[in-house]
Amino acid sequence: MGPVDPSTNLPPPPTRERCYRHPNVETGVHCTRCGKPICPDCMIPAPVGHQCPGCVADAQREYRQGAGKQVARARVRTTPVTKILMLAIALGYVWELIVAGGPGSPLDGPTGQNLIDAGALVPATGGTPFALTGGLVGGEYWRLLSSMFLHAGLLHLAFNAYALWIFGQEVERDIGSVPMLTLFLVTGVFAGAVSYALAPGFIVAVGASGAIFGVLGAYIAYNWRRRQLAMAQARVRGAITLLVINLVIGFSVPSIDWRAHVGGLVAGLVAGWAVDPSRPPALRRTFTIAGLLALVIGAGVLVAFRTAQIQADPSVLLPGG
User: Fold this and answer.
1) What residue spans of 176-229 are helical by DSSP H?
2) Is residue 196, in this structure, part of any structural domain at all?
């Protein structure tokens, strides 16, 4: 038997693969998702090994269409409605500046006709003394809502946003996000209806203060029902102190619509009694629906009463009318 060449027993040299995205680059690394060879420029770190850009893009797309969409929906559902309302009134102020801005308006806000154009609460927007058009008289009931998100200046906006931040969070934590949002809107509409029904003459009303007084009134009402608890007593004392201060300011400053404040407070007391979180869930749901529905009906009655009064005698819109 002759000599054996040792090289004949060695395995063949490994084949050098080339990156599927860069054919001129040799590599020994593979994507852990699709198995294709990838070079260092295409390696994206993964929980295990590396993946190629194509697989990473596919994974991101699958996440957005599946689990990512569910996560986004969950985030929306868990976003505090108080923050959403604060953002809404901030955007409302930006809206009125864009639509009805003017010299100095970023600080002082638009006034008069500009505010009316932006969506302020007014009895009418035009016509003759004998044939009024627009406004609540003309069926523009949406102004009861839109006026809540407009403000007469940056300071007005800041005060309302601060008060909403303090009490809105507490009420939302106690009664839930959807009831809090409904309470805010319903008491705000009722406050606007009271302002419209009782204001002497022609007024232009804006601001979330009526709804905020509604939130404050609700906070006082359901804590008063639990006043046997030390925490509830402390809450009531603090809220009433702030309430008295704001009412005094409201009655003292001529430009403040105290009627809306009082209307919002009354609506809030009713709503707070209705949404009391200490009630059993089924009973609480019944009281909540009944209480808020009663406020909506009450607002409608006030608007209808004042509209009929104005249509019968438009002179009531004159100063002191």
Assistant:
1) 177-198, 209-224
2) yes
